[in-house]
Amino acid sequence: MPGVDLVRNPPGASDLVLLAHGGEEESLGNPHSWRPALLRMWPFAVAARSAAPGAAVGFMRYRYRGWNATAADRFDPPHPAARAVADPVVDLRAVLDQLPSVVRRVLLIGHSMGGRAVVAAGDHARVAGVLALAPWLPVGEPLVGLRAPVMFAHGADDTITDPAATMAYAARVRAAGTPVRTYLLAGEDHAMLHRSGDWNRLVADFIRSAQDSQELSGSQELPETNRGLQAATVGEIALARFRLPVRERFRVG
C-alpha cells in the first residue's frame, strides 16, 4: 500500500516536506528502499531538515516502480484524465487525502517520474508548493492548477528527460496565470550527480520561499558554485541515508 516514510517528525509539525522519487514508464516491481532513484533523494531530506527545522520530512512510497498509465495517457493529445489514473498519482493523492489532520501544508518535491507525479497532484488543497527536478513532462502533458510557489529545475545535459519540454511546460503554466521559476543547470545530467551542492541549495531555497509564502518567477541558468566527483556525491547520499533513518511509517488504504 502507498504511504510515507518519515525521517523527521517534530511534535505538532503542521508542515510536511514530501520527496517523490523517480521510477520507470511501466513496471509493477517493488520500489524497495535501496533503489538508486530513492537513494538519490536522501540528501534533499538533509537540506529540508536544515531549511525547515520545524517541519516533518518524508519520502513518498509508491506501490509500484512504474508510472503505469492507462490507455488514456497514450491518446494524441493525451486525455485530460490521464494524470489522475497513473499509479504514482493515485498513490500521492491518496496520501495527501489521508494525512493526519495536524498536517495542513505539504511541500512536494519530485524527481523524474516523481516530478511528473508532484505536478499532477500539485492542485491538491493541502499542497503549498511544488518543486519538480528534471521532471518527465511529455509533450501535451495536461496543465494543472499548481499551488504556488512553483519551481522547475533541469540539467542542460539530461538525455533521459527533456529540459526543453520542462521549460515549455513551465511557459504554459505561466501563460495560465501561475508564477513559476525555472532553472537550467549547465553540465548536469539526469542523475544530478555532478552539481550536488547546487541541487541541494535549490531545494533549500524552494522550501524557505514556500514557508515564507514568497512568489517565485523568472527563468535563469543557475551559476555553478559546486562541482564534485560523482563518487563524492554517492558518498554524500550514503552518509545522508544513514544520518536520517526512517523513524515512522504512515500507510494509507
Question: Can you describe what's shown?
Answer:
This protein is of the alpha/beta class and 253 residues long. The protein has one domain (3-251): Rossmann fold, CATH 3.40.50. The protein has helices at residues 36-39, 42-51, 82-85, 87-98, 113-120, 163-175, 196-211, 230-243; strands at 3-8, 15-20, 56-61, 105-111, 127-133, 150-155, 181-185, 218-221, 248-251. Strands 8-7-6-5-4-2-3-1-9 form a nine-stranded mixed beta sheet, sandwiched between helices. The chain starts with a strand and ends with a strand. One of its GO terms (molecular function) is catalytic activity. This is Pimeloyl-ACP methyl ester carboxylesterase.
Bin the strand percentage: 15-25%
**How much is the radius of gyration in Å?**
17 Å
Largest sheet: 9 strands, mixed
Parts with pLDDT < 50 across at least 5 consecutive residues = none
CATH superfamily: Alpha/Beta hydrolase fold, catalytic domain
- Structural class, judged by helices and strands? alpha/beta
How do the SSEs run, as a string of H and E? EEHHEHHEHEEHEHEHE
Spatial arrangement of strands, main beta sheet = 8-7-6-5-4-2-3-1-9
Q: What percent of the residues sit in helical stretches (DSSP H or I)? A: 25-40%
- The number of domains: 1
Instruction: Give the second-level CATH assignment, the architecture.
Output: 3-Layer(aba) Sandwich
What is the CATH topology assignment?
A: Rossmann fold
Enumerate how many helices there are, as a single number: 8
CATH class: Alpha Beta
InterPro entries: AB_hydrolase_1, AB_hydrolase_fold
Protein name: Pimeloyl-ACP methyl ester carboxylesterase
Domain AB hydrolase-1: 17-189
GO molecular function: catalytic activity
